[in-house]
C-alpha cells in the first residue's frame, strides 16, 4: 500500500509523543493519521472509520495497549489489521503474552526515525501480519522486527555522549572512557539532542547541568519527550552538589548524579555497570525476535495440521468406512480395513487435539455450537477402543439413564468432544487392569447432560491434586501428560464442567462431565 493512501492510528497517552510520531508519519508521506490517548478512544475511532495500521504505546490509562490488542484480535472485522506495539517493557513474561495475543511487531524504545519508517512501511506492505491467524490465512514470509543494535555477547563498542560547554571537562571525561567506549562530544544542549535523536544515538549520556542557552535539566526533559531518546540513560556530571539540584536531576529521569571533580575509578565503574543494563535491555530485542518467530512457527504448524493433514486423514477414514459397508468382504480384508479405520480415527484425533488445543490456549478458539448425539459419538468411540485394546480384554458398557430411546443430544462442538472423550477413555483404558470394566453413564438433568466414565483402578495418590495439569503423567513410558489436560480445556471451551473422583475402597476412578444439551 502506498503511504499516501494509508490511515494510521497512533495511540499514546503522552501528547508530546503523539505529536512527534504524527510529525514523523507525515514526513514519511502517510496520508491520514488519527490519534487517541488510550485504548478505549482508539476503539471509538475504529468504529467510525477504516484503519490500516495501529501504532500503540503499551502503558496507558483507561485501557492499555495490551488490552487494546486483545480487543482488536477478538473482532473479526479488525483481526488482520497490523498492530505495532511501541514499548520499553522489559519483563519477558509480559512481552511473551503480547506475542501470544497477536502483536504484529514490537518497536523497542529507544528507536530511530529510520527504524520507525521501516516498521511502518513493512506493516502497510503486508510484510508483517498479526500472529492470530484466521482459517484462511496463508503461510507467510519470515517476520521482521526492528533490528537490534547489539546483543549481550556482541563485541560492538558501546558509545557514550559527553555534554559539557567546557572543553577541558570534555577532554578529561573522554580521556577516562575512550579506551573502552566510542566517545561522542557535544558543547551545548541542541547538539546533544541532535545526536540523541539521530539514526545512531548513544548508549549513555554524561550530561553537565550548567550550560548556556539550554541547561542539562532542559536537555533531559526534551530527551524524555522524544521516542528516539526517551530511554537513553543519563548521568548528570555537575559542580552543583546541593540536594535540590540532585533531586531535580534524578526526579527528571537521570539514573545517577555525580558531582565534580569526578573520581575517575568510580566514574568508570558506574559507566560500566550502566552499560551492562544497556546491553541487557538491547538484548531483549533479540528475545522478542525469537518469540515472534516461534509464535509464527506455531501458527504455521497449526496451518499444516488443520488444513494439510486433517483433510487427507478424514478422507482415509471415510473411504475405509464405505468399504466396510460391503458385507461380502473377506475376513482378512475386513480386519485390515478396520485397522485402517481405527488408525485414521486416532490420527485425526491427534490432529484435532493439537490444532484446537493451541487455539484454546492462545484464546483464539471460537465456539460454534451445533446439535449432535453424544450417545452415537460414544458408540463409535467405544467400538474403536474395543478393537484397539482387544488384547487387554477390557469390557465396555454404556448405561443410558435418560431412557432407551433417548438420543442424548448435546449442544457443542462434536469434533472437540470426540477429541476430549477419546483422550479420557484412552486414559481409562490404560489405567484399567487386564479384564477390567469401563462404563459410560449418561443422564439428562434440567439444563445439562451428565456424563460419567467409570473404570477399575485408582489414580496414583502423588498426581491426584495435579491430574488436570499439563505434562503430568504416571506409569506411562511414552505418556506426554497432555491427554487429561487437553480434555479439560476442550470440555470447558464448550461451556462444560469436568472433575475427577477416585475411590480407594472401591478401587474405582470416576470422570464426571456436564455439557449443555438440546431437548
Automatic annotation (TrEMBL):
Keywords from the UniProt entry: Kinase, Phosphoprotein, Transferase
EC category name: transferase
Domain Histidine kinase: 304-519
GO molecular function, a single term: phosphorelay sensor kinase activity
CDD domains per UniProt: HisKA (cd00082)
Superkingdom: Bacteria
PANTHER family linked: HYBRID SIGNAL TRANSDUCTION HISTIDINE KINASE C, TWO-COMPONENT HISTIDINE KINASE
Protein name: histidine kinase
